[in-house]
Design goal:
Nucleotidyltransferase, domain 5; 3 helices; five-stranded mixed beta sheet; alpha/beta
Length: 135
């Protein structure tokens, strides 16, 4: 004996009216909120000048330390001693205390001790985001 199953039509009668109302309310909210954000910048306000003002942090800049096959250190285009690299990293962390990155690129013929010295400088200045580039 065959059993007859009655299929309901509940899914075909879903009411989307309340969902559309919510979407329109969200759209209106974001349009009004963005309008207020623009008006804050358009007010005529004369801001005072500060002679010693500078941003809290500089734009994050990646420092690349190159080590050639002779064990010479290069930051940017300039040849530096290890003390000068130390000073450059100190200045970089003063400008970007939380976001400074360092890439270390060493020639494959250089001793690993030269790389470890730069890694120690990174740790000394609390630079956590460093990497050793390889091919």
């Amino acid at each position: 004996m065959a059993i007859e199953i009655k299929k309901g039509n509940a899914l075909s009668a879903i009411n989307f009216t309340s969902l559309i109302d919510v979407v329109f309310l969200l759209l209106i909210f974001f349009l009004v909120a963005s309008r207020f954000a623009e008006e804050d910048r358009q007010l005529e306000v004369r801001l005072p000048n500060a002679s010693e003002a500078k941003p809290l942090t500089d734009r994050p800049r990646e420092i690349i330390v190159n080590i050639d096959d002779g064990g010479n250190y290069f930051v940017g285009d300039s040849k530096m001693t290890l003390d000068e690299v130390d000073l450059a990293l100190r200045q970089a962390t003063a400008n970007n205390p939380a976001h400074q990155t360092v890439n270390i690129r060493a020639d494959k013929r250089v001793g690993f001790e030269a790389v470890v010295l730069v890694l120690n400088l990174c740790k000394r200045h609390a630079i956590e985001n460093y990497s050793i580039d390889t091919r």
